[in-house]
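[#protein-structures] MJ: dropping U-box domain-containing protein here for a structure pass
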Amino acid sequence: MADYQLEALFSRIFAVAFYNSPDHASRRPPVVVLSVLAQELEAELGQKPVLDTALLDRVLVSRLIEAPPANYPQPPIQYLMGSYERASEELRKAGANEQIKAAAATSRDLILNYAGLALFAGIVVQPPVLETRGSVQLMDALLLRYGLPAVALTAAVTPAFAGPGGGGEAAAASYVAGSVPMPPGFLEELAVRHDSDEGLADASAKIVVELSRLVSVISPLGDPGPHLTALSHLLSLESLARGSVAARSWIPADMRAASGRAVVLPGACWLGPFFNISPIPDDVRGAATQEPSVLAQCFVGLENRRPGDVNNAVSGLRLAMKNITGQLHGVVKSMLKMRTTKARMLTWLGAVLEGNVGRSKLRFDQEAVAPDGFLTNVAAVLLKLCGPFLDTSPGSAFWKRVDPGFVAAGGMLDSSYSAETRLAAASDEEAAWRERVRSHLGASASAPAEVSGPASPTGDSASRTAGAGADGGGFHFICQAFFLTAHALHIGPVRSMTHLEGDFGHSIHFIRNHVSQSEAMMQEITNPGERAMAQMALSRAKAQLDYMQARYQAFLTVLLDTALVADVLAFYRLMAAWLTSLATGVPGPNGFAALSLPLPEPAPQAFTCMPEYFVEDMCSVLLFVSRFAPQLLSSATDGAGVRLDEFAVFFTTLMASPQYIRSAFLRSKLSEVLELWLPQNEDEEPTGRAAFRRIRGSSGPAAELAALFNCHPIVVQNLAPVLVRLYNDIEHTEREGAFYFKFNMRTTISNILKYLWAQQHHRAVWLKAVRDEEYRGNSERFANMLLNDLTYLLDEALKLLKLLREAEDTRTDETRWTAMSREDRDELVHMQERNGQNLTAMIRSATSVIDTLNFITEEADTTRTLLQPHMVERLRDSLNYFLKYLVGPERRLLRVRNPEKYNFNARLLLRGLVTVYLHVDSIDRVIAANAGAGAAAPVFAAAVGSDKRSFKPEYFLEALAVLDVAGLISLSQRDQLESLSQRALAASSVAEAEDEVMGEDVPEEFLCAIMFTIMKDPVMLPSGVVVDRPNILRHLLSDNTDPFSRLPLTEAQLVSDEGLAARIADWRRTRTH
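AK: finished. structure tokens for U-box domain-containing protein:
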């Protein structure tokens, strides 16, 4: 190869020459003529120098250090990258020419050396602004390479040129114009070449922090793709990744002490802002504002936007987030694969979750924790990491690697777990289990590492390597990923879902009502000044409502993304299978097949010591998706394809097992999911909360779900009795607002029971359970709870109706209304609204109780429970009391304007009540008839008539009249009700006559110490007090203590006093003869 050809090659690569040439004017970048160096070389060589390999080093020293050109359009770093790119191009075109290959390779080696000197040693002279920017210039080149427009890069770098002597925006634009996209291979070779250079780690840290700062203000609509791709490229190189995770701003040294919000601050945690890119705005004070605004461009003014436009915006945002989370997953996966960064990446994940443990609380300070969007992205990435083992097949590595001992190990999530309620273990039991696990882990750590060995107290030892360290490093990555994902979902997407359905949803409802009320009240304001102030307040309220509705839609956009929902449901399917294996002791997914009830007792501590949220979050997700996007539950192409039958079996099993799930609240929440899955026809009129939240339709999800309740043996053979017991258990629950919560949950359970009652196989199982208990036990407590609830709900409804009537009267009385201050009027309107909501809830629950009594009294077995001596009077008390208020003089208290607003229909309630009377009366008479001659007579009519507090025969006649006019009673029902009324009246007359005969001088020992009535079946309590058996049995249904000593009491402790019973019987005979 001739010297002039080699010289031309180097001149093209480095844009330099020793002498001027006519073609220099057309070259880009401009050619720098090194005339001073040429003169020096002429003096040394005695002839004109030729640019060859031997002189390259001196050429670059002159070009970059000794005599850099003034006002050259490319700064040194950009010049070197451009030279590298040209050298690579020459190498590509060289073909088989080994001389050109060697020359181009030599050029690249020198370029990389001088790039290191420029970036890490400060030897190459740069303008002050770029000297300060330093290695961040590599970031600029990466961003250009990955598609960031020059105008966007100019805006990004302008602040760096804003200081004295920086040149401002014009200088920034000039810098960007001279910058080159990162050449392929340059960063890789630079990292390898300078791997041992201390400056490399500082350079990588500086780059990621600046990238983090830039991306912190970019929304999904702003295309953060170039920044994420640049980050991915940077961290794919181990030496750069190692320096990045060693940076002080990788994560605060103690995230438990630091605020959880620190993870989204670029200066505190550079990776956090990348995870914070989300359609859900972070609206706490001082948070970085992401532009363009998702709310402003997509959702503000939602009611005025075309549905198609909103759907397109949602689809676009979901596609953008798919790309973003995909790139984040690539970054994290790359870091986990590298030996030198894996531990730091795991530490980051654990610390981020630990630092935000506050989000697991019912109430928390938004300013002290990471935003919803951030944690949803963290969870989405972790779900992708779990992807390879989400399959529940027996061959999955999951079953050998996941150890419940992770929860007790005291490592990555120690403080998070310590604050969590356990599935069933008491605090002392959990502490003892944790100590045993840690002791075993310590012994494992001191022993030689083995792939397998003796089983631990918690699971397969193959799930661990050595001891469990603070970073969870003693457990297999599959184990770590599983538990990290469960916790990320807990404080991330699941917390967002419950917030959306709870406080956030309620706030929107409240503000919407406030706007409606304010608009109505505007019509009543005549004072111009007051009207202007009211108009301003109304405008503010409307703006707030608009913003909250837009934010609500942003949440739904993220949380109902089909891919995310599919991953979440697949994860919880795996969680259900894993918990089942712990409960049954059958390893792997075969635990489902091995399920049978009752579960083994005592419950394994590896199960009972797991956090309660493992199951509760599963419920929350299924509830959220069932209510907001039930189509995603379908196995069709538009659904998530999840096996809901496995959830149904799992939930039925846990509801039946209080030793495994201690909280009645949680077990009732399981039933809430099943209620939403009840099949329902389009023409069916739903009741309770299902009226607006149950999956509807005869095809799609509803058709698929129909089989859940009718096929699997666990469900068919156990669900009805399990729900009956659960109805009783939720009388006492530990959650906030539990008293009112129980009525909602009982309505839920009643809806399921109503459906099961209509299925012959479920009804048969239910009736057999009642017979097996001899009409006592759970069926008796169930009936008692129904009657307790009916009485309480009626009393509360009456109070609320009275308050509503008073408010209505005040608002219609113009004199009183205008005399009130505006604040008093507002308060009255708000109170009226609140009372109306409470009344609606009470009426819904009362209707549910009456419906339940309606259908259970269709069968003799379930009605026998109500006809027992200690139950029949309870039944008549509730029915007669309710009837009195529906048709007696007190019914005037039930009158309010627009009762349909509260779902209050007195005639339908009356029809339901009368149906219960008729069902019980019919079965009572059939039982007596079948018992044969000499058996006890029917008891119900006599009990109804002996009610001195509420029974009046005219109430039955009035009920007949009301129902007859409304067409709500048949002729046969009318005849039966008249007959019941007559028989009850006859019994009432007999009871009055008996009272007269007995007189008032009843011996005190004959009177029940509870009700002060003459005893028929006296029994002695452990406290020594004698009471009538039906009265104490009724007491024990609600309170299992001796009413006189308050000590625990059971029915087995009652001692019949046969002598006293005989004396009372003799005394009765003497009085009646």
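MJ: nice. Strands lie at 16-17, 32-33, 1018-1020, 1026-1028, 1055-1056.
AK: one more thing. The longest strand covers residues 1018-1020.
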